[in-house]
Amino acid sequence: MSRSSSRPPLRRLRTALAAVVGAVAIASGVGAEPAADDTPAAPPAPPTDPMQSLGSISVGHPHHGFLVNGVRMPRGEHWILGAPNLAWGTDETIAALVHCAQRYHELFPDGPKLRIGAISAERGGPLPPHKSHRTGRDADVHFVLTQRTPKKWYEPATAENLDRERTWGLLRLVITETDVEMVLIDRAVQALLEEHALKIGEDAAWIADLFHGSPGSSSLIKHVPGHTGHMHIRFVSPIARRRGVQAYDRLVEQGHIVPPSRHVEHVVVAGDTLSEVAVRYGTTVEALQKTNQLGSTVIKLGQKLTITERVDIKGARDPVVVPKRRLPPPATAVAQASR
Asked: Do the beta carbons of residue 125 and residue 60 sit within 8 Å?
């Protein structure tokens, strides 16, 4: 199977997403078992900020960044949202989730609905207790279980309750039909899925590469303790990330995002003026006067000035690389498709 033949056309994903968004509204609030909400969707308001016309923007590393112009995961026929208010992502992330949910239903029409947990807050940023989920690229999708405790939203997968066939089918879709950086799954659940994949005839070398890596590449599926109830998927979202790199300075200047800062000390040398020091450190004369309690713009040789210096958000200017999809050998792909 070629890379191009396995990749769902972006236009088709966006069309599918638009159709779902136009047909359903999102429930507000968070609950153990999300309640139904039949409130009609309000028509979208026209953009008032020119920045909105750029589309969704993912800024910086998922552990440090922000989301601008996020898209909310719609409520759909084949999935349930555990935290609708925390279900914001890049348009690419949401399109990928919708695609996988619809394809999962095609493969397992009698299976339970997918359970989708946290993605990001509307504007990204910190999302306790998660360390990441800040840029609209991380999504928690629960494992499919053969049975669940009634009214319990989060439930760990075990050898007794994991629906191996459906969970592996879902994970396979995520890996082969979307662009992902990695998938986090606890090693105990990994072992169950790896065993199942080999048992049904998946290519052994491909499976080993996914779960354990191969010479020159690390594993795509990584162990993080505690990920026993859901898989944590990090989508690449290259378009939204490239927008973030290109528009970073503008986003900061317009106040859409607030980068971190640090205090540095400047010792005044011959020829220094307050305005020159301000320009050198990317601040203003007024800010220097306020921080250092200066009653005028006069500074003296040897005087120590405390300066609040803006620091780039980690990863905000990093080049965006789309990794090659980790696809199975063509013979295996054809065999799976014929099942």
From this structure: no
Rounded-to-integer distance, Cα 314 and Cα 317, Å:
8
Neighbours of 290 (CB within 10 A): 11
Q: Are 143 and 230 in contact (CB under 8 A)?
A: yes
Task: Indicate the pTM of the whole model.
Answer: 0.78
Q: Both tokens of residue 6? A: 């396995």
Whether the per-residue pLDDT at 5 is higher than 60: the answer is no
- From first CA to last CA, the distance across the chain in angstroms is 16
| Phi then psi dihedrals of residue 159, to 5 deg | -60, -25
How far from the centroid of its chain's Cα atoms is residue 148's Cα? 27
Name the packing angle between helices 10-23 and 91-107 (round to 10°): 90
At position 233, the amino acid (one-letter code) is I
From CA 5, how far away is CA 9, in angstroms rounded? Answer: 9
Beta-ladder partners of 79? 76, 114
Structure tokens at 55: 């589309």
Q: Which domains are assigned to the chain? A: 3-242+318-337 (3.30.1380.10), 261-310 (3.10.350.10)
As given in the structure block, the two tokens for residue 155 are 């439930």
Tens digits of residue pLDDT in 82-91: 999 999 999 9
Paired tokens of 192: 């169950």
Which residues are CB-contacts of 60 (< 8 A; sequence separation ≥ 6)?
66, 134, 135, 244, 313, 314, 315, 316
187-206 pLDDT, tens digit each:
999 999 999 999 999 999 99
